[in-house]
From TrEMBL:
It is an enzyme of class 1 (oxidoreductase). Pfam families: ABM. This is Quinol monooxygenase. InterPro entries: ABM_dom, Dimeric_a/b-barrel. Its EC number is 1.-.-.-. The keyword Transmembrane helix does not apply. Keywords: Monooxygenase, Oxidoreductase.
Length: 97
């Protein structure tokens, strides 16, 4: 079943200006990862430090493999240097409703 991952980020004040370039770089690898069906980046109109990334995955197993990759030295990104806080929520798309 399709899985939606929503990653909510709180950027550091210093990271706001760097965010577009670092997100572009980071999401290039995300979008090319096996099982990724697309990503969208949402910038909060009321709070420039609040960014949400909506990722669509073929399955929870694909998302799990991606998260495991990001936890390795090879999968690490520069995103951690501009993030003060994060929250990840996974959703299952129910096609039967």
């Amino acid at each position: 079943m399709t899985t939606i991952a929503i990653l909510e980020l709180t950027l550091t004040a210093e990271g706001v200006a760097q965010a577009p370039a670092i997100l572009t770089e980071t999401l290039e690898a995300t979008r090319s990862f096996e099982g990724n069906l697309g990503c969208e980046v949402l910038f909060d109109n009321a709070d420039e430090r609040h960014v949400s990334i909506v990722e669509r995955w073929e399955s929870v197993e694909h998302d799990d493999a991606y998260r495991a990759f990001r936890a390795t030295p090879e999968g690490a990104s520069r995103l951690g240097g501009i993030v003060a806080g994060r929250k990840l929520t996974l959703y299952t798309v129910r096609d039967d409703i």
